[in-house]
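Why does residue order matter? Because the sequence determines the fold. Keep that principle in mind as you read this record.
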Amino acid sequence: MELPMAVSIREVGPRDGLQGEAPVPVEARVRLVDALSAAGVGRIEVGSFVSPKAVPAMAGTDRVFAAIRRAPGVVYSALALNQRGAADALAAGVDRLQVVVAASEAYNQRNVNRTVEQTMEEVAGVVRLAGGAATPVPVDATVSTAWGCPYEGEIPAGRVVELARRLRDLGCEAISLGDTTGMASPTRVEALLDALAAAGIAPETSVNCHFHDTRGVGLANLLAAILHGCRDFDTAVGGLGGSPTAPGAGGNVSSEDAVHMLEDMGVATGIDLGRLVEAARFAGELVGHPLRSQVLVAGPRIADPGSRKGA
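Structure:
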């Protein structure tokens, strides 16, 4: 098995993980972000700049950005669905922006109440706005429902590739493939990465994989992507997450499960597993229900003192 020396992880728990939960106080969200940076997480999706009526759990993201302790070298990003949200994010001092468009027309309508083409127009506006800031801010794009949609079923790989090409041409610096409801499997992961490579999109454009563990194959998909050349992944502390507009969506791949597996295989993440488990324990206290993380429950294969405390 040929493995890389290291991979990069973007922690999406404070945004993707909490967006479908009952609102958590801003002060607690700040503590979670700070706990993640203290664990050595180098990239954190802090929240989203969206209507609080649509996503109440993300209200006050500007105040989260104002209160976090910015660790040197850590990239703090946010999701914006339109130019208004992007302007608010830029005013809050984000380091990077994320935008999203679905490969499924039906899911896009339910998620952002716009057609795919209307969403692409908004993305173009966000890229212009971010690029024209006093200090230009990079924009990354997620193609959600990349491996299937709960409303449309199978999504042709060609549709995902075409959206990725258009997003790249608009100026998005990285493309994330979103397995929104956990419909991917290792061979499907390989097939889509092959299609992106054949189209000349990867590796010239950075490709990130964002897996959900709805059907228990999240880590298998992550490993398949690594073996197929992907080096950039989204995970969520505690396995938090799930799309509020996709019925049956499970949580994201757990950050501590991914770090535990990768580090044990000799693939560096730069993240302190013990501190990450503590952050996951805190996340569980915030949402008030058991989390999906296996390492949080069982502890590492060779226990770090305190790693199972209270688990």
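The longest helix spans residues 116-131.
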